[in-house]
Design goal:
Keywords: Membrane, Transmembrane, Transmembrane helix. This protein has two domains: 40 residues; 40 residues, no CATH class. It is mainly alpha-helical and 85 residues long. Strand 2 and strand 3 form a beta hairpin. The chain is rod-shaped. The protein has two helices and three strands.
Length: 85
């Protein structure tokens, strides 16, 4: 009877240890996955570059300047245009 109780107690301890190990592995996996996704995600980069582009729907200089853009070569230019726009 005493051996049976010891065996059950060891099994309970093993189950608790296995649960702790599993939880640690899941947490570590989530942290690693978040790091990898943020590293590969170009939308989240702090060094995102802006490229000037002309805005074809603005046809007049006054309309362009009213919107805070630059008029050059009969085109309205947006200097803060992101390639992910």
């Amino acid at each position: 009877m005493q051996q049976y109780q010891q065996k059950i107690n060891k099994q309970k301890i093993n189950v608790v240890i296995n649960i702790i190990i599993l939880v640690n592995l899941v947490i570590t996996g989530c942290i690693c996955l978040q790091f990898i996704v943020s590293w590969m995600n170009p939308y989240n980069s702090g060094t995102s570059q802006n490229f000037p582009t002309s805005l074809p729907w603005i046809h007049t200089k006054s309309d362009c300047e009213h919107r805070g853009r630059k008029w050059d070569n009969n085109k309205c230019w947006d200097s803060e245009h992101s390639m992910f726009f």
